[in-house]
Amino acid sequence: MAANSTTNPSQLLPQELVDKCIASRIRIVMQSDKEIVGTLQGFDGFGTMVLEDVTEFEVTPQGRITKLDQILLNGNNNASS
């Protein structure tokens, strides 16, 4: 009997799910008062990510918005770590 080639999303490991998001726009909630939206280009096993076409939102009364071409985001800074 052949194994089912489709994968149930609820059975994906976290790194498998992130891998499926390569080249997609993602939002990352930081441990600080920031959220980052960008296109995921790559990641490693420590949660470090390379994002392009990035917008950084500061979640403060000032609400500063910063646009960046590319960033290397340390995995220790996102809220899921």
UniProtKB/TrEMBL annotation:
It holds the Pfam family LSM. GO terms for cellular component: Lsm1-7-Pat1 complex; spliceosomal complex; U4/U6 x U5 tri-snRNP complex; U6 snRNP. Keywords: mRNA processing, mRNA splicing, Nucleus, Ribonucleoprotein, RNA-binding, Spliceosome. Residues 13-81 form the Sm domain. One of its GO terms (molecular function) is RNA binding. LSm subunits form a heteromer with a doughnut shape. This is U6 snRNA-associated Sm-like protein LSm5. It comes from Bos indicus x Bos taurus.
